[in-house]
Write a structure and sequence with these properties.
single chain, about 160 residues, mainly beta, 7-stranded antiparallel sheet, two-stranded antiparallel ribbon, 9 strands
């Protein structure tokens, strides 16, 4: 994937880019742009919002159907995608010296999940802007567990400027 191993923004710095606060933060790092995609990182923690015991399709399960793992579930994956888009937008506005606008998800479509991210292992989410119409953006979000594509979706996001 060619993504930097060193985050450009992380920890408390990421909170300056997104409106969410604990315990509802689902992005921890911003790694920058690679091949037209902006990359964020997040490590789900067992026992927090949107994690639960899942049988089968966790990222580290390697097909062992009897094993259960604590994984980030669908709502957490979608929230990670949305907050990743917010972090990217926030970083772009701050880089230009502008105030960060508030964004709202208008729609989620083409959502697909093939592996649930396992608690304790960092996931990387790639954000691409597919197009804009006024203050509405169409974003593609692809979540990776290691090198494997685990989930994807398109998000329509409205920015209130």
């Amino acid at each position: 994937m060619g993504v930097s191993q060193k985050a450009i923004v992380s920890g408390e710095g990421i909170l300056k880019l997104i409106p969410q606060r604990a315990p509802f933060v689902f992005v921890e790092s911003y790694y920058g742009e690679v091949d037209g995609a902006y990359v964020t990182g997040f490590t789900p923690i067992a026992g927090t919002l949107f994690t639960e015991s899942v049988e089968g399709a966790c990222c580290d399960n390697r097909g062992e159907k009897e094993e259960r793992s604590i994984c980030l579930t669908e709502p957490g994956v979608i929230e990670n995608m949305a907050q990743s888009a917010a972090a990217v937008t926030g970083y772009q506005f701050v880089s230009r010296g502008e105030s960060i606008p508030v964004g709202f998800i208008g729609a989620v479509s083409k959502f697909e999940i093939t592996e649930f991210p396992i608690a304790g292992e960092e996931i990387r989410t790639h954000i691409r802007n597919l197009g804009e119409f006024g203050d509405i953006s169409l974003i593609e979000a692809v979540l990776f567990c290691g090198q494997r594509r685990a989930a994807s979706a398109e998000l329509k996001i409205f920015l209130q400027k």
